[in-house]
Amino acid sequence: MAVFLSTFANKVDRKGRVSVPASFRSVLERQASSGLILYPSFKHPCIDGCGDERIQEMVDSIDRLDAFSEEAEDLQTILADARQLTIDGDGRVMMPKDLLDYAGISDTIMFVGLGKSFQLWEPNAYAAHRDEKRKRARDRGITLPMAGRGSDK
After folding, report:
1. Half-sphere exposure (CA, 13 Å, Cβ side) for 108?
2. Are 35 and 96 in contact (CB under 8 A)?
3. What confidence tens digit (pLDDT) does each residue in 84-98 have?
4. What are the residue boundaries of the SpoVT-AbrB domain, all occurrences included (predicted)?
5. For residue 153, is pLDDT > 50?
């Protein structure tokens, strides 16, 4: 399975282009994705990203909701705000200015792998977010039950 891993800091050039990390491009290629899809995060001051496979899973999940429910309407805004970006021959994408503004990103983008998806952060905002989440995990003593290990009861 191809997953987005690790964290990379890449510069945004004067034209608003940024290089997509090679490992992220590799995941997108293995997923036969036509590019990457970005949208403003619902939860954090960052940009959420994924490939075609993941956005299709999200569409399918939203379609299973009552079509006229408030929950469906709320989640459909993800699709309305999403941008499908094509990676150029040099491995770069042109970042939409409104997404950069939403995340407070100016000259450097942190690409943060989250498994089936990824996020784009302003570096200092990501550092604060990461530190806060790790502290919360330590304070709560969070553990991770591993999938497929005797939890079939």
Report:
1. 11
2. no
3. 999 999 999 999 999
4. 7-54, 82-125
5. no
Which position has the token pair 């293995």? 30
pLDDT in tens, 113-151: 999 999 999 999 999 999 999 999 999 999 988 887 655
For residue 90, give every residue at least 6 positions away whose Cβ sits within 8 Å of its Cβ, in sequence order, or none: 19
* C-alpha span between 25 and 89 (Å, rounded): 11
Degrees (nearest 5) of the Cα angle 78, 34, 5?
75
E strand or H helix that includes residue 140 = helix 123-140
Quote the CA–CA distance of 119 and 92 in Å, as a whole number.
Answer: 16
Collect all residues with Cβ–Cβ distance below 8 Å to 36 and sequence separation of at least 6: 20, 24, 28, 49, 50, 51, 84, 85, 87, 93
SS3 per-residue string spanning 48-96: EEECHHHHHHHHHHHHCCCCCCHHHHHHHHHHHHCEEECCCCCCEEECC
The pair of three-digit structure tokens given for residue 99, joined into one six-digit string: 């997404």
